[in-house]
Amino acid sequence: MSKLKDFSCAFHGNENMANQKLIYPAATRNQEPILQVLKRFVTYDCAEDDSPFFLEVASGSGQHLAHFAPHFPNIKFQPTEFDETLLGSIKYYATQCPTKNILLPIQLDICTDLVHYGFSEESIDYVYNANMIHISPYECTIGLFKNAGCYLKPNALMILYGPFSKDGVITPDSNVQFNASLKSRNPAWGLRDISELIKIAADYSLTLIDTVEMPANNKTLIWKKN
Ligand SMILES: C[S@@+](CC[C@H](N)C(=O)[O-])C[C@H]1O[C@@H](n2cnc3c(N)ncnc32)[C@H](O)[C@@H]1O
C-alpha cells in the first residue's frame, strides 16, 4: 500500500463534527512502535498534583493519544488539530479514554504563537507531532520548532515522528516516490531534511539528542530544549 493511501481514513458516518470515531490505518500501525519510543523518553517523577503536560500538535483522528494515554496515567495529554472537521473524532477518543487523562481538543494552527491559545512560555513538558511537517507548508515546520522552543520548559522534549531526508538524500526508493507524490499534490509539501531541521532548531534553543529508526522507513527525532 502506498503511503498516500496510508493517510486515508475509514470514515464512519456522514458528518464528523458529532464525535464519530475515525480510524487511520497508518496510525493503527505506527501507534505501538511510537509508544515504545515514548516509554524510553517520557520519564517523569511527579507529585500527584503535578501532572506533566504533553501537547500533541496535529492530532488527526485522535488515535495516537488514545493509545498512549493509558500507559502514562499521571500525564495530562492535550490534543490539538488545525482541521476542525477532525475535532469530533479526537473528542470521541478523549472521552472514551479509560484513564481520563486526555483533555478535550483545541483547534490550533501551529503557525500561530501559542500565547493565542492561552499557553505560557516554558510551561509544556512534552511536544509531540507525527506526520505533519511533510504534509504542510514549510511555515508549519518553522512554527512547530518556534513554538516548541518558546513553550517547552528547559530540558523538556519535542518528539517528532515521520519520514525525513538526511543531508539532502532521501532513502529508500519508496520514500523518494512518496516525496514526489507529495510535491505533485502540493509543491509546498515534501520530506524535510534532518540537517535543515537541526539548523532551524538551533535558532529556537532546541538540540537533536536522538534519532530512532522506525518501521516503514520512518524515524522518531528527539529534540531537547536547551
Ligand atoms: C497526515 S495527518 C497526521 C495526523 C496524525 N498526527 C497521525 O499521525 O495520524 C497531518 C495533520 O496535520 C494537520 N495540519 C496541517 N496544517 C496544520 C497546521 N498549520 N497546524 C496544525 N496542524 C496542521 C492536518 O490537519 C492533519 O490532521
From TrEMBL:
Pfam families: DUF938
Name of this protein: Methyltransferase-like 26
Species this protein is from: Bombyx mori (Silk moth)
Protein family per UniProt: Belongs to the UPF0585 family.
PANTHER family for the chain: UPF0585 PROTEIN CG18661
Matching Gene3D superfamilies: Vaccinia Virus protein VP39
Domain of life: Eukaryota
